[in-house]
Each structure stands twice: as structure tokens, then as C-alpha cells.
Amino acid sequence: MNPRLMRLSADWQKIRNEFSGHPFVKVEPAAPGIPPERYIVTFNLPGLVWDSTRNAPVAARQHVAEIYLHADYPREKPKCVLKTPIWHPNFGSFICIGDHWAAGETLVDVIVQIGDMIQYKTYNPKSPLNAAAARWAVQNRNMLPVGNINILQPEVAITLGAAAPARDDLEIQLF
Prior knowledge:
This protein is α+β, with helices and mostly antiparallel strands. It is built from 3 helices and 4 strands; from the N terminus they run αββββαα. A 4-stranded antiparallel beta sheet has the order 1-2-3-4. The longest helix is centred in the first third of the chain and has 17 residues, at about 5-20.
């Protein structure tokens, strides 16, 4: 198996481990084939959309992204597009997942980053794809983030047996 297919397989396994049964994120292959090269990610997270009747952003809960792992992935970042409307400085015709990409970042990292962006936990108004949303975010920092859901599931605590009660009267013999 070539290195790219090994990476795609590793990403697929990590996605299944992290997001199977997840309460806020659903990740599905967008086309047949294992490992997938294209994913549809549905986020059930608080975000904003522009309401032209109110001339203001309003709350939205469901956001759908498509992530494409092109032939140059992982040397270059994946292509990410939001398929549903959103009001955010770093979403436009694509999702700006950062100016500096490292091949060591996983697809799980990208999905978490997009989720944090949707909630305005992270945003960059200095390099916007939506200048109006960037101005709004700067003027309304006190309203942000709009959500505070941690997408990564907590680590499972494992206890191997109960700890014995401390006793000073035990005699220890070394053989």
C-alpha cells in the first residue's frame, strides 16, 4: 500500500474511532470506496447565519461540510467547503482551515477545527473570506463564542483494580 493510501486508511480509522455515535458530529463517506477520499460532515453545533429580513446574524444549529482529500493530501491541506449557509469571517467559497498546514495534522484535527470555527471559538478577522462577518465579529466580541461544545470525546478513564487501603502494620518480605 502506498503512503497516501496508508494515510487515508489511518484517517478513516481515526474518524470511526472518534465520531462513531458522536452526539454533535456525524461523518460519512461521500462516495463509495474505502478508504474514503471525500467526506460529508454534519455538525449539530451552535453557529450563525445571516438573516436578511432582520439584517443581522441569527442562530443556526445544523451545518454541513464536505471535505475532499485530493491527490496532494496530506502534503497539502484538504479542500473543505461548507454546504450550508454560515455567517463567519473564515468561510466563503471554501473553509479557511489555516494558512500553515502540517502533514502531521489528522482529518480528526480538521473536523474539530471546523467545529470550533462554526461556534466562533476560533476565527481570524485579519484574513477574512467574508469581510462583513469579520467586521461584525470584531464589533461583537462580547457575544462570542456562540457555542462552547467540546467536539473531542473525553478519554475513557480506566481503573485496574481497587487500590488496597494503606496499612502501616504490614510486613513486607523481599526474596
